[in-house]
């Protein structure tokens, strides 16, 4: 299993990306391809006493920054670490591609360089998130700001397959993000999507309101990319506010600090449960090969776990599962 890595994507590249990749090589037994400025990679490795194991370097001098136009991956920066990584994936010089770089550029590269699975109308970014009960999946998280009803129908199908084959949920429930649970709520597009999804071959649970999502009332949450991205960012922000508030409450005085010792294990468990680093990033569902978008601020641990997503993808042959099921139409009323 060989994983192609964009060594210069993300806020902490290349050091944390290289360190995370080496952690993944050790833990998952993979081979790695680091794509980026070869001289800078070698210099970083030497300065930080990192041992490259089962790893090759492919030289790519240019970098796509977070401020670059997403389409630059196709032309203006076709020699960037991200663009070269996508081409290596297409040339079967690796089995999956992982980048912590520009989300828009990753989406364009996955859609137009790697290309869609036949029958998929739009690939989507799917993020595993914590809930009070168990991990849930949110998609789309930003690839498609505007959607049609049939896109949301397919997001539900692909999300259901991910939860079934990757996280091993027996019959994952799929819900449609909306401003009410009634089937009469929502925009015309959302109402149309509801009508399709209620006749879907997957376990459609109806509409779900934002306040229900953290309780894990559905296993897969489907939304257009605009709505999904807001849900994701709000989720992350509220989690940070709560954890900081808990920390501040216990740091007020000597008595509260002593009290903390009695609940430390429970708080540590909660921190781990709601730590985005545990999953490392999001997957692009609907493209012909595994593409993983790691968090832009990924440290070594976070990036290692993003690579883990690629390993899961390959071990469970999720691409074939989607190919076999994507053209199943909703039942006629």
Biggest sheet architecture: 11 strands, mixed
Major sheet: order of its strands?
Answer: 3-2-1-4-11-10-5-6-9-7-8
> Average pLDDT, to the nearest integer?
93
Q: What spatial form do the alpha-carbon principal axes imply?
A: globular
Uncertain parts: none
Compute the gyration radius: what is it? Answer: 21 Å
Order of helices and strands: EHEHEHEHEEHEHEEHHEEHH
Indicate the percent of residues in helices: 40-55%
Class from secondary-structure proportions: alpha/beta
Proportion of residues in β-strands: 15-25%
Q: Between the first and last Cα atoms, what is the distance in angstroms?
A: 45 Å
User: Helical region count?
Assistant: 10
Number of strands: 11
Question: Overview of this structure, please?
Answer:
With 333 residues, the protein is of the alpha/beta class. Helices cover 43% and strands 16% of the residues. It is built from 10 helices and 11 strands. It has helices spanning 15-28, 38-47, 81-90, 103-114, 149-165, 188-197, 225-250, 254-273, 300-315, 318-325; strands at 2-6, 31-36, 55-59, 96-99, 124-129, 136-139, 173-177, 203-208, 220-222, 281-285, 291-294. Strands 3-2-1-4-11-10-5-6-9-7-8 form an 11-stranded mixed sheet, sandwiched between helices. Helix 3 packs parallel to helix 4 (103-114). The chain starts with a strand and ends in an 8-residue tail after the last helix. The mean pLDDT is 93.
């Amino acid at each position: 299993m060989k994983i192609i890595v964009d060594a210069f994507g993300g806020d902490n590249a290349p050091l944390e990306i290289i360190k995370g990749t080496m952690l993944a090589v050790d833990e998952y037994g993979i081979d790695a391809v680091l794509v980026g400025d070869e001289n800078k990679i070698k210099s970083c490795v030497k300065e930080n006493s990192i041992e490259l194991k089962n790893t090759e370097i492919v030289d790519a001098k240019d970098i796509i920054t977070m401020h670059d136009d997403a389409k630059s991956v196709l032309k203006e920066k076709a020699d960037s670490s991200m663009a070269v990584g996508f081409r290596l994936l297409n040339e079967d010089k690796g089995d999956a591609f992982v980048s912590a770089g520009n989300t828009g550029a990753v989406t364009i590269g996955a859609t137009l360089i790697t290309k869609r699975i036949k029958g998929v109308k739009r690939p989507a970014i799917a993020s595993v998130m914590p809930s009070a009960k168990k991990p849930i999946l949110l998609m789309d998280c930003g690839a498609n700001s505007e959607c049609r009803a049939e896109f949301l129908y397919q997001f539900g199908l692909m999300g259901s397959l991910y939860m079934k084959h990757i996280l091993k949920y027996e019959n994952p429930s799929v819900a449609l993000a909306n401003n009410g649970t009634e089937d009469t709520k929502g925009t015309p597009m959302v109402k149309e999507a509801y009508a399709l999804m209620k006749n879907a071959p997957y376990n459609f649970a109806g509409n779900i309101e934002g306040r229900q999502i953290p309780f894990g009332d559905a296993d897969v949450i489907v939304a257009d990319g605009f709505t999904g991205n807001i849900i994701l960012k709000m989720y992350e922000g509220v989690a940070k506010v709560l954890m900081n508030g808990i920390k501040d409450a216990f740091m007020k005085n000597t008595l509260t600090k002593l009290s903390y010792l009695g609940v430390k294990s429970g708080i540590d468990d909660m921190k781990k449960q709601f730590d985005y680093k545990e999953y490392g990033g999001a997957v692009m569902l609907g493209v012909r090969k595994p593409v993983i978008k790691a968090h832009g601020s990924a440290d070594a641990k976070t990036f290692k776990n993003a690579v883990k997503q690629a390993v899961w993808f390959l071990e469970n042959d999720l691409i074939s599962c989607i190919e076999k099921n994507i053209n199943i139409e909703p039942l006629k009323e």
